[in-house]
Amino acid sequence: MVRKALMGQAKGWGIGLGLVLAVWVDITAASSTVYRVVDERGNVTFSDSPSDGGEALELAPLPGLPSQYAEVPDEPPASASPGQPFMPYDRFQIRSPGAGAEVGADTPVMLSIVPRLRDDHRVQLRVNGEISQSALHSDVFWLANLPAGRHRLQAELLDSQGRRQHRTTAVTIVVAE
Fold this sequence. Notes:
There is one protein chain. The chain has helices at 2-30, 67-70, and strands at residues 34-38, 44-47, 55-57, 91-96, 102-103, 107-114, 122-127, 130-131, 140-143, 149-158, 164-167, 171-175. It starts with a helix and ends with a strand. Helix content is 19%, strand content 33%. The chain contains two helices and twelve strands, in the order H-E-E-E-H-E-E-E-E-E-E-E-E-E. A hairpin with a 5-residue loop joins strand 10 and strand 11 (164-167). The strands form three sheets. Strands 5, 7, 8, 10, 11 and 12 form a six-stranded mixed sheet that branches. Strands 2-1-3 form a three-stranded antiparallel sheet, with no helix packed on it. Strands 4-6-9 form a three-stranded antiparallel sheet, with no helix packed on it.
């Protein structure tokens, strides 16, 4: 009988100790420090040990989503266009002239690029599907000597290797006679 009582008490202590240990592990894992270590060759490694002589980093908590938001919608949002490549800009569009604008044979095309165009990116302008000018690090292009009639404008974003990463929505303009 004494043995049963001791066994029951030991189980209770074991469960209690297990809970305390689990809470302690959770707290220490959440507050653990990560150290950034750079060796003599410039290689960077990360460690949880300060003895490696690294710089302590303060890490932001990882974001989480409630399960109601984790579900994948059945349809993509209406504003999404399928097959568009990754774009590191919040806005990449033709600002002027606007769709349907009547312009002269020589007119500027102004783009809206937010944030500013990266140093290693270029933009090229297409008129009626053909490259109008070589790729430039610019948000303004000049159209010159366009014949009268309707023309379709579209700008393309090129990465540092000259690969097209994105296109603006096409804008149709009318050159007056």
